[in-house]
Predict the 3D structure of the following.
Amino acid sequence: MSERQVTDIRQRVRAFVTEELQPLEPQIIRWELEASQRVEPFTGEAGRSYLFDPLGDLPAEVYERLLDAARERGLWGIDVPAEYGGLGLTNQAKMAAIEEMAKTIVPFVLPPDSPNLHWLSAACSPDQRERYLEPYARGAITSGIGITEPGAGSDVSGIQTTAVHENGHWVLNGRKKWIGKADWADFLIVVAVTDPEKGSRGGMTSFLVDRGTPGVVVERRLPTISNYRPCEIRFEDVGLDDEQVLGEVGQAFVPMQNRLSVRRLEIAARCVGATERLLDMMMEHAKQRVTFGEPLASRQTVQNWIADAGIGLHASRLVNRDAAAKLDAGASDIRFEASTAKVLGTELLQRVADECLQAHGGMGLGKDLPIEYYYRLVRVWRIVEGASEVHRVTIARQLLRKGMPATAVALTGGTP
Protein backbone atom coordinates (compact mmCIF):
# COMPACT_ATOMS: atom_id res chain seq x y z
CA MET A 1 0.00 0.00 0.00
CA SER A 2 1.27 3.46 -0.89
CA GLU A 3 1.72 6.32 1.53
CA ARG A 4 -0.94 8.19 -0.41
CA GLN A 5 -3.56 5.51 0.34
CA VAL A 6 -2.84 5.60 4.07
CA THR A 7 -2.98 9.40 4.05
CA ASP A 8 -6.27 9.25 2.15
CA ILE A 9 -7.96 6.95 4.67
CA ARG A 10 -6.66 9.10 7.54
CA GLN A 11 -8.12 12.24 5.97
CA ARG A 12 -11.47 10.60 5.27
CA VAL A 13 -11.77 9.29 8.82
CA ARG A 14 -10.70 12.68 10.19
CA ALA A 15 -13.51 14.34 8.24
CA PHE A 16 -16.00 11.75 9.49
CA VAL A 17 -14.93 12.38 13.09
CA THR A 18 -15.06 16.16 12.74
CA GLU A 19 -18.34 16.34 10.86
CA GLU A 20 -20.34 13.40 12.25
CA LEU A 21 -18.99 12.45 15.69
CA GLN A 22 -17.56 15.42 17.56
CA PRO A 23 -20.82 17.40 17.29
CA LEU A 24 -22.47 14.62 19.33
CA GLU A 25 -20.08 14.90 22.28
CA PRO A 26 -22.27 17.13 24.52
CA GLN A 27 -25.09 14.61 24.18
CA ILE A 28 -22.77 11.65 24.79
CA ILE A 29 -22.08 12.86 28.31
CA ARG A 30 -25.82 12.92 29.06
CA TRP A 31 -26.50 9.59 27.38
CA GLU A 32 -23.60 7.99 29.24
CA LEU A 33 -25.06 9.08 32.59
CA GLU A 34 -28.37 7.49 31.65
CA ALA A 35 -26.88 4.26 30.30
CA SER A 36 -24.62 3.81 33.34
CA GLN A 37 -27.65 3.01 35.48
CA ARG A 38 -28.55 -0.09 33.47
CA VAL A 39 -27.34 -3.33 35.02
CA GLU A 40 -29.94 -5.72 33.64
CA PRO A 41 -28.70 -7.55 30.54
CA PHE A 42 -30.39 -7.06 27.20
CA THR A 43 -32.69 -9.81 25.96
CA GLY A 44 -32.75 -9.94 22.19
CA GLU A 45 -35.29 -11.38 19.81
CA ALA A 46 -34.48 -14.84 18.55
CA GLY A 47 -33.05 -14.79 15.05
CA ARG A 48 -32.49 -11.03 15.02
CA SER A 49 -29.03 -9.48 14.67
CA TYR A 50 -28.02 -6.30 16.47
CA LEU A 51 -25.22 -4.23 14.96
CA PHE A 52 -24.81 -2.04 18.06
CA ASP A 53 -25.56 -2.16 21.78
CA PRO A 54 -29.33 -1.68 22.22
CA LEU A 55 -28.68 -0.38 25.77
CA GLY A 56 -25.56 1.62 24.93
CA ASP A 57 -24.72 5.31 25.01
CA LEU A 58 -25.92 5.98 21.46
CA PRO A 59 -29.67 5.81 20.67
CA ALA A 60 -30.58 3.39 17.89
CA GLU A 61 -31.52 6.10 15.39
CA VAL A 62 -28.19 7.88 15.92
CA TYR A 63 -26.14 4.71 15.54
CA GLU A 64 -28.01 3.72 12.40
CA ARG A 65 -27.37 7.15 10.90
CA LEU A 66 -23.66 6.86 11.70
CA LEU A 67 -23.49 3.39 10.15
CA ASP A 68 -25.04 4.77 6.96
CA ALA A 69 -22.65 7.72 6.99
CA ALA A 70 -19.65 5.40 7.38
CA ARG A 71 -20.80 3.34 4.40
CA GLU A 72 -21.37 6.42 2.26
CA ARG A 73 -17.88 7.69 3.06
CA GLY A 74 -16.28 4.36 2.16
CA LEU A 75 -15.19 3.57 5.70
CA TRP A 76 -16.79 0.16 6.12
CA GLY A 77 -14.50 -2.85 6.31
CA ILE A 78 -11.18 -1.01 6.10
CA ASP A 79 -9.11 -4.16 6.62
CA VAL A 80 -11.71 -6.67 5.39
CA PRO A 81 -10.34 -8.61 2.38
CA ALA A 82 -11.77 -7.50 -0.96
CA GLU A 83 -13.13 -11.01 -1.51
CA TYR A 84 -15.56 -10.35 1.36
CA GLY A 85 -16.56 -6.92 0.11
CA GLY A 86 -14.11 -4.84 2.17
CA LEU A 87 -11.46 -2.31 1.24
CA GLY A 88 -8.63 -4.77 1.88
CA LEU A 89 -6.30 -2.12 3.29
CA THR A 90 -3.26 -2.78 5.47
CA ASN A 91 -2.89 -2.83 9.22
CA GLN A 92 -0.99 0.44 8.93
CA ALA A 93 -4.04 2.01 7.31
CA LYS A 94 -6.33 0.52 9.93
CA MET A 95 -4.22 1.90 12.78
CA ALA A 96 -4.21 5.34 11.15
CA ALA A 97 -8.02 5.18 11.02
CA ILE A 98 -8.23 4.13 14.67
CA GLU A 99 -5.99 7.04 15.70
CA GLU A 100 -8.40 9.46 14.08
CA MET A 101 -11.47 7.75 15.55
CA ALA A 102 -10.00 8.17 19.03
CA LYS A 103 -10.07 11.95 18.68
CA THR A 104 -13.67 11.86 19.81
CA ILE A 105 -15.35 10.40 22.90
CA VAL A 106 -18.31 9.18 20.83
CA PRO A 107 -18.22 5.36 21.25
CA PHE A 108 -18.67 4.47 17.60
CA VAL A 109 -16.45 1.80 16.02
CA LEU A 110 -16.00 1.40 12.28
CA PRO A 111 -17.30 -2.14 11.61
CA PRO A 112 -16.46 -4.93 11.72
CA ASP A 113 -14.37 -5.41 14.87
CA SER A 114 -10.93 -6.34 13.53
CA PRO A 115 -9.43 -8.72 16.11
CA ASN A 116 -12.22 -11.28 15.80
CA LEU A 117 -12.12 -10.86 12.02
CA HIS A 118 -8.45 -11.88 12.07
CA TRP A 119 -9.12 -14.85 14.34
CA LEU A 120 -11.99 -16.09 12.19
CA SER A 121 -9.98 -15.62 9.00
CA ALA A 122 -7.15 -17.71 10.42
CA ALA A 123 -9.18 -20.53 11.95
CA CYS A 124 -12.60 -20.95 10.29
CA SER A 125 -13.56 -24.14 8.50
CA PRO A 126 -15.27 -23.78 5.08
CA ASP A 127 -18.68 -24.16 6.73
CA GLN A 128 -17.81 -21.63 9.43
CA ARG A 129 -16.60 -19.17 6.82
CA GLU A 130 -20.04 -19.24 5.25
CA ARG A 131 -21.98 -19.16 8.54
CA TYR A 132 -19.84 -16.72 10.51
CA LEU A 133 -16.91 -15.07 8.73
CA GLU A 134 -18.59 -13.87 5.55
CA PRO A 135 -21.67 -12.30 7.19
CA TYR A 136 -19.42 -10.87 9.91
CA ALA A 137 -17.14 -9.29 7.33
CA ARG A 138 -20.19 -7.81 5.57
CA GLY A 139 -21.38 -6.27 8.81
CA ALA A 140 -24.52 -8.40 8.92
CA ILE A 141 -23.75 -10.01 12.31
CA THR A 142 -21.67 -9.16 15.38
CA SER A 143 -19.37 -11.08 17.72
CA GLY A 144 -17.79 -10.96 21.16
CA ILE A 145 -14.94 -12.73 22.91
CA GLY A 146 -15.27 -14.89 26.03
CA ILE A 147 -11.86 -15.31 27.67
CA THR A 148 -11.69 -13.46 31.02
CA GLU A 149 -12.99 -15.19 34.16
CA PRO A 150 -13.41 -14.19 37.82
CA GLY A 151 -10.05 -15.83 38.57
CA ALA A 152 -8.34 -15.50 35.19
CA GLY A 153 -7.77 -12.03 33.79
CA SER A 154 -4.43 -11.12 32.27
CA ASP A 155 -3.22 -14.66 33.05
CA VAL A 156 -5.29 -16.53 30.46
CA SER A 157 -3.53 -19.77 31.41
CA GLY A 158 -5.68 -19.68 34.55
CA ILE A 159 -8.93 -20.30 32.65
CA GLN A 160 -11.19 -22.76 34.50
CA THR A 161 -14.13 -23.05 32.09
CA THR A 162 -14.15 -26.59 30.72
CA ALA A 163 -15.45 -28.35 27.64
CA VAL A 164 -15.78 -32.14 27.75
CA HIS A 165 -16.43 -34.28 24.68
CA GLU A 166 -19.05 -36.91 25.43
CA ASN A 167 -21.74 -38.74 23.47
CA GLY A 168 -20.68 -37.11 20.22
CA HIS A 169 -20.76 -33.49 21.33
CA TRP A 170 -19.08 -30.99 23.65
CA VAL A 171 -20.44 -29.94 27.04
CA LEU A 172 -19.35 -26.48 28.18
CA ASN A 173 -19.38 -25.45 31.86
CA GLY A 174 -17.94 -22.48 33.69
CA ARG A 175 -18.12 -18.71 34.21
CA LYS A 176 -16.83 -15.71 32.31
CA LYS A 177 -16.64 -12.12 33.55
CA TRP A 178 -15.98 -8.72 31.95
CA ILE A 179 -17.29 -9.98 28.60
CA GLY A 180 -18.30 -7.22 26.21
CA LYS A 181 -21.34 -7.69 23.92
CA ALA A 182 -22.25 -10.95 25.70
CA ASP A 183 -25.96 -10.11 25.84
CA TRP A 184 -26.49 -8.85 22.29
CA ALA A 185 -23.78 -10.15 19.92
CA ASP A 186 -24.81 -12.91 17.51
CA PHE A 187 -22.05 -15.19 18.76
CA LEU A 188 -19.13 -15.37 21.16
CA ILE A 189 -15.72 -16.94 20.65
CA VAL A 190 -15.37 -18.80 23.96
CA VAL A 191 -12.09 -20.30 25.14
CA ALA A 192 -12.30 -23.36 27.39
CA VAL A 193 -9.97 -26.00 28.81
CA THR A 194 -10.33 -29.33 27.02
CA ASP A 195 -7.25 -31.02 28.50
CA PRO A 196 -6.37 -29.81 32.02
CA GLU A 197 -3.03 -31.62 32.00
CA LYS A 198 -1.81 -29.75 28.92
CA GLY A 199 -3.35 -26.39 29.82
CA SER A 200 -2.12 -23.59 27.55
CA ARG A 201 0.26 -26.00 25.79
CA GLY A 202 -2.31 -27.94 23.80
CA GLY A 203 -5.20 -28.09 26.22
CA MET A 204 -7.29 -25.03 25.29
CA THR A 205 -9.96 -24.95 22.59
CA SER A 206 -12.08 -22.12 21.21
CA PHE A 207 -15.78 -22.52 20.41
CA LEU A 208 -18.34 -20.52 18.46
CA VAL A 209 -21.31 -20.09 20.78
CA ASP A 210 -24.45 -18.53 19.31
CA ARG A 211 -26.60 -16.12 21.29
CA GLY A 212 -29.58 -17.92 22.75
CA THR A 213 -27.86 -21.30 22.98
CA PRO A 214 -29.51 -23.26 25.83
CA GLY A 215 -27.47 -23.14 29.01
CA VAL A 216 -25.84 -19.77 28.30
CA VAL A 217 -26.97 -17.42 31.08
CA VAL A 218 -26.11 -13.71 31.01
CA GLU A 219 -26.40 -12.72 34.67
CA ARG A 220 -25.83 -8.97 34.63
CA ARG A 221 -24.05 -6.00 33.18
CA LEU A 222 -21.14 -4.63 35.18
CA PRO A 223 -21.07 -0.82 35.56
CA THR A 224 -17.52 0.54 35.50
CA ILE A 225 -15.62 3.80 35.75
CA SER A 226 -16.35 4.61 32.09
CA ASN A 227 -18.78 3.73 29.30
CA TYR A 228 -17.40 0.16 29.39
CA ARG A 229 -20.24 -2.06 30.68
CA PRO A 230 -19.40 -5.73 30.06
CA CYS A 231 -21.31 -8.76 31.30
CA GLU A 232 -20.93 -11.68 33.66
CA ILE A 233 -22.09 -14.98 32.16
CA ARG A 234 -22.16 -18.65 33.05
CA PHE A 235 -22.36 -21.85 31.04
CA GLU A 236 -24.50 -24.66 32.43
CA ASP A 237 -24.10 -27.90 30.46
CA VAL A 238 -24.05 -26.05 27.15
CA GLY A 239 -24.18 -28.59 24.33
CA LEU A 240 -22.02 -27.81 21.27
CA ASP A 241 -21.48 -29.82 18.10
CA ASP A 242 -18.04 -30.47 16.68
CA GLU A 243 -18.87 -27.87 14.01
CA GLN A 244 -18.72 -25.20 16.73
CA VAL A 245 -15.02 -25.82 17.39
CA LEU A 246 -13.00 -22.91 15.99
CA GLY A 247 -9.66 -24.15 14.71
CA GLU A 248 -8.01 -27.28 16.04
CA VAL A 249 -8.96 -28.93 19.31
CA GLY A 250 -6.46 -27.94 21.99
CA GLN A 251 -4.79 -25.28 19.85
CA ALA A 252 -6.59 -22.08 20.90
CA PHE A 253 -3.72 -20.47 22.78
CA VAL A 254 -1.63 -19.21 19.85
CA PRO A 255 -4.49 -17.75 17.74
CA MET A 256 -5.93 -16.28 20.96
CA GLN A 257 -2.63 -14.54 21.69
CA ASN A 258 -2.46 -13.28 18.11
CA ARG A 259 -5.98 -11.89 18.44
CA LEU A 260 -5.08 -10.22 21.73
CA SER A 261 -2.01 -8.67 20.11
CA VAL A 262 -4.15 -7.06 17.42
CA ARG A 263 -6.51 -5.62 20.05
CA ARG A 264 -3.62 -4.35 22.14
CA LEU A 265 -2.22 -2.60 19.11
CA GLU A 266 -5.63 -1.05 18.48
CA ILE A 267 -5.78 0.25 22.05
CA ALA A 268 -2.32 1.74 21.58
CA ALA A 269 -3.52 3.48 18.41
CA ARG A 270 -6.53 4.85 20.28
CA CYS A 271 -4.16 6.24 22.89
CA VAL A 272 -2.15 8.02 20.19
CA GLY A 273 -5.27 9.67 18.77
CA ALA A 274 -6.66 10.63 22.17
CA THR A 275 -3.28 11.98 23.31
CA GLU A 276 -3.02 14.12 20.20
CA ARG A 277 -6.43 15.65 20.80
CA LEU A 278 -5.69 16.38 24.46
CA LEU A 279 -2.32 17.88 23.57
CA ASP A 280 -4.03 20.16 21.04
CA MET A 281 -6.54 21.21 23.71
CA MET A 282 -3.78 21.86 26.25
CA MET A 283 -1.76 23.98 23.81
CA GLU A 284 -4.76 26.04 22.74
CA HIS A 285 -5.79 26.64 26.35
CA ALA A 286 -2.21 27.48 27.38
CA LYS A 287 -2.03 30.20 24.72
CA GLN A 288 -5.36 31.76 25.69
CA ARG A 289 -5.46 31.41 29.48
CA VAL A 290 -3.77 34.29 31.32
CA THR A 291 -2.83 34.02 35.00
CA PHE A 292 -0.99 36.66 37.00
CA GLY A 293 -0.50 38.67 33.84
CA GLU A 294 1.09 35.92 31.74
CA PRO A 295 -0.32 33.17 29.48
CA LEU A 296 0.02 29.61 30.76
CA ALA A 297 2.17 28.89 27.71
CA SER A 298 4.92 31.01 29.24
CA ARG A 299 5.12 28.81 32.38
CA GLN A 300 7.97 26.34 32.32
CA THR A 301 5.90 23.63 33.99
CA VAL A 302 3.27 23.83 31.24
CA GLN A 303 5.97 23.95 28.58
CA ASN A 304 7.46 20.76 30.03
CA TRP A 305 4.04 19.08 29.94
CA ILE A 306 3.65 20.04 26.29
CA ALA A 307 7.16 18.98 25.33
CA ASP A 308 6.96 15.61 27.10
CA ALA A 309 3.55 14.95 25.53
CA GLY A 310 4.95 15.67 22.08
CA ILE A 311 7.96 13.44 22.66
CA GLY A 312 5.81 10.58 23.94
CA LEU A 313 3.27 11.00 21.15
CA HIS A 314 5.94 10.78 18.46
CA ALA A 315 7.56 7.73 20.05
CA SER A 316 4.27 5.92 20.61
CA ARG A 317 3.13 6.49 17.03
CA LEU A 318 6.41 5.09 15.67
CA VAL A 319 6.17 1.99 17.89
CA ASN A 320 2.62 1.37 16.63
CA ARG A 321 3.63 1.76 13.01
CA ASP A 322 6.53 -0.63 13.45
CA ALA A 323 4.20 -3.31 14.84
CA ALA A 324 1.58 -2.74 12.11
CA ALA A 325 4.27 -2.93 9.42
CA LYS A 326 5.42 -6.28 10.81
CA LEU A 327 1.85 -7.61 10.68
CA ASP A 328 1.55 -6.44 7.09
CA ALA A 329 4.83 -8.21 6.31
CA GLY A 330 3.39 -11.50 7.63
CA ALA A 331 4.80 -11.63 11.17
CA SER A 332 3.05 -14.36 13.18
CA ASP A 333 4.08 -13.19 16.64
CA ILE A 334 4.12 -9.52 17.67
CA ARG A 335 3.56 -10.03 21.39
CA PHE A 336 6.64 -7.98 22.29
CA GLU A 337 5.66 -5.13 19.97
CA ALA A 338 1.99 -5.16 21.03
CA SER A 339 2.87 -5.20 24.73
CA THR A 340 5.36 -2.37 24.24
CA ALA A 341 2.82 -0.31 22.28
CA LYS A 342 0.05 -0.81 24.84
CA VAL A 343 2.17 0.04 27.88
CA LEU A 344 3.70 3.08 26.18
CA GLY A 345 0.39 4.34 24.78
CA THR A 346 -1.82 3.88 27.82
CA GLU A 347 0.67 5.32 30.28
CA LEU A 348 1.33 8.28 27.98
CA LEU A 349 -2.38 9.03 27.68
CA GLN A 350 -2.87 8.66 31.42
CA ARG A 351 -0.20 11.29 32.07
CA VAL A 352 -1.33 13.69 29.35
CA ALA A 353 -4.99 13.44 30.39
CA ASP A 354 -3.99 14.27 33.95
CA GLU A 355 -1.84 17.24 32.91
CA CYS A 356 -4.42 18.50 30.42
CA LEU A 357 -7.05 18.41 33.17
CA GLN A 358 -4.65 20.16 35.57
CA ALA A 359 -3.90 22.88 33.03
CA HIS A 360 -7.62 23.55 32.56
CA GLY A 361 -8.23 23.70 36.31
CA GLY A 362 -11.90 23.68 37.29
CA MET A 363 -12.98 23.61 33.64
CA GLY A 364 -11.16 20.31 33.22
CA LEU A 365 -13.30 18.72 35.91
CA GLY A 366 -16.53 19.69 34.20
CA LYS A 367 -18.48 17.71 31.66
CA ASP A 368 -18.59 20.58 29.20
CA LEU A 369 -15.20 19.35 27.98
CA PRO A 370 -14.20 15.77 27.07
CA ILE A 371 -11.08 15.77 29.28
CA GLU A 372 -12.59 13.98 32.29
CA TYR A 373 -14.14 11.40 29.95
CA TYR A 374 -10.72 10.52 28.50
CA TYR A 375 -9.28 10.56 32.02
CA ARG A 376 -11.71 7.82 33.05
CA LEU A 377 -11.50 5.88 29.80
CA VAL A 378 -7.73 5.45 29.82
CA ARG A 379 -7.94 3.99 33.30
CA VAL A 380 -9.92 1.16 31.74
CA TRP A 381 -7.47 0.77 28.85
CA ARG A 382 -4.57 0.32 31.27
CA ILE A 383 -6.25 -2.86 32.55
CA VAL A 384 -8.27 -4.47 29.74
CA GLU A 385 -6.39 -6.68 27.28
CA GLY A 386 -3.69 -7.17 29.89
CA ALA A 387 -2.55 -4.87 32.69
CA SER A 388 0.68 -2.91 32.25
CA GLU A 389 2.44 -4.98 34.89
CA VAL A 390 1.72 -8.21 33.03
CA HIS A 391 2.90 -6.72 29.75
CA ARG A 392 6.16 -5.74 31.40
CA VAL A 393 6.64 -9.39 32.36
CA THR A 394 6.08 -10.36 28.70
CA ILE A 395 8.55 -7.74 27.54
CA ALA A 396 11.20 -8.78 30.09
CA ARG A 397 10.89 -12.47 29.17
CA GLN A 398 11.30 -11.64 25.49
CA LEU A 399 14.42 -9.58 26.17
CA LEU A 400 15.96 -12.17 28.46
CA ARG A 401 15.26 -15.00 26.02
CA LYS A 402 15.77 -13.43 22.59
CA GLY A 403 16.98 -9.87 23.01
CA MET A 404 15.52 -6.95 21.10
CA PRO A 405 13.54 -7.83 17.98
CA ALA A 406 14.45 -6.20 14.69
CA THR A 407 12.69 -3.03 13.58
CA ALA A 408 10.48 -3.22 10.51
CA VAL A 409 12.34 -2.32 7.33
CA ALA A 410 9.74 0.14 6.06
CA LEU A 411 6.91 2.15 7.56
CA THR A 412 4.05 3.48 5.47
CA GLY A 413 1.73 6.27 6.43
CA GLY A 414 3.51 9.56 6.35
CA THR A 415 2.94 12.33 8.83
CA PRO A 416 -0.52 12.87 10.31
Notes: The domain at 144-246 is CATH 2.40.110.10 (Butyryl-CoA Dehydrogenase, subunit A; domain 2). The radius of gyration is 22 Å.
